[in-house]
Amino acid sequence: MPAASLGDTIEVVIRPASLPAVMRTLREDADLRYEILSDICGVDTGLTMQVVYHLWSPLSSDWLRVIADGLSREDPRLPSITFLWSGAEWGEREAYDMFGIEFEGNRDLRRIYMPPDYLGFPLRKDFALADDASRGPGEGIRPMETPHRPAEVRTTGALRTSPGAGAVLGPGGEHLRVSPGAATAIAAESGEGET
Amino acid sequence: MRTEPTRIRSLDDPEVLVQTPATIYDAVPPLTPRTEREAEFYTLGDGEMFVNLGPQHPSTHGVLRVVLKIDGERIVDLDPVLGYLHRGVEKICEHGDWHHAISNCDPLEYAASMFSEALPVLAAEKLLGLEVPRRAEHIRVLVWELNRIASHALFIGWLALDLGGLTPILYGFTERDEIVEMLAALTGQKLLFNYMRIGGVNGDLNHEFLSRLGDWMGRAGKHIDGQATLMNENEIFVNRTKGLGVIDRETALRLAMSGPPLRASGVPYDVRRAHPYSVYPELEFDVPVRSEGDSYARYLLHIEEIKQSLRIIDQVLQRMPDGPVMAKLPRLLRVPPGRAYIALESPRGQYAAYAISDGTDQPFRFRIHDPSFFNLQAVGLLTPGHLVADIMAIMASLDPIMGGIDK
Questions:
Q1: Looking at chain A, which residue has its C-alpha nearest residue B126?
Q2: How far is CA B40 from CA B35, B48, B67, B74, in A?
Q3: What is the model's pTM?
Q4: Which residue of A has its CA nearest to B349?
């Protein structure tokens, strides 16, 4: 686990799979007590996806930044931390809405800002705004998003044919299933792992 | 040979399916449920029904839509629907330079925009390692605390208004108007001030601002006490807010809340003390904390915070140093590459930003953390079991601002 200190923030970079164990230790260890979840956000570096958590503990005046790094841009997914902070639910919904990051174990992972039938993830780096052509000569106008036809989505699209209530729309439009209690299962699995 | 009798089809015919286009006001979404939670919510039990509240409703403090599942007059469950005010501020900030981000962040917290516009400023200053002139730091604290009082005065009025009392909001707006006029003399704007600048503030204190401020400071304490008496001794107000929407300490922490709702539950987390910025470490003030965690405690906490803000303003005015109000900076501001996390204590809680710079004049990623967004989540937990009329009192006591929630 490489840790780097930047200004008044301690930074920890971890693998996504070890996230539940790391967060549980940070929150519940008596010498750490990082009980305040200051922020949760997604980041698209252009090469990979990250989910960045900021924590605060009454025992330290520093922020702790935990970066779950190395999510693939095609299918970014990592365990949810709603079993520790139920308030992370909306934060994760926002990261899903804006970046398409799947949080396994979040039982309400649906879009929060954009309309339900919207396709595309606005804060990704490949989601170009219409005036991006002005940034470099010859770049041209790139499509803002996948063309979306609500009527088609409603009748024949993925949402209509999805089997069962647990289906959600993945970043490519394919079905993804969120099983109940996935977070706790994952946490138990990686419980004896590194911290 | 027998012919089928021609049937006249009417809307009363149960075989006729009337296809009406789905509108935003339909409580039940036209799509199949996307998650377990949505499926669970949109399944009605015995005797339950859906009621749509908002998005245009005065008690939702903006354009918040809430789908209520009710059983008689009791709320069984609710589903807040956000996004009616979504502008994509984070994306816009990535596409303008650092200076543009200031005015883009301005309308986030439109009741106290001195705080939201400080986000890109503090982030850029941290990345630049910039030292802001002392006078500018003092002016910032001064306008922040003034704006906090303006916002809290409005909160107290709104809370009473949502409970059906018309008078307090008139007093609240009187107080707010005086402060806003004063800030307009300083910044030229009444609502979206656009006053913070990377490296300082936009313009020194002027005579009109100071004379209005001195005038107001003489009677502010008395006004606050008067307003507090008006509410505290009102039996209806106290009975309707006491014991309503109780959050305990552990739940408040788990919900990632901040600001007055968190401190009313007994967690002394105030960014001004927890992770001091600007000149707050040099100032004397207390962080009011209460342990009841109900709507009434949240209201009392706001009154206490106004008094502490007046204390801070007093000290800042006495300590106000001379000097420039802007650091010397190049016209084209290239912020060095790096990551920075900054937070400040807004009237609603911890306003934070996580900025990544790639060395150009534009932020690579500018994440805005809004406290109302996380505080508003608590309504899903607080309101079930209460009456429909109480949802207003609970929501108003959490003090959400939709400009920040929807970004």
A1: A7
A2: 9, 13, 13, 18
A3: 0.79
A4: A38
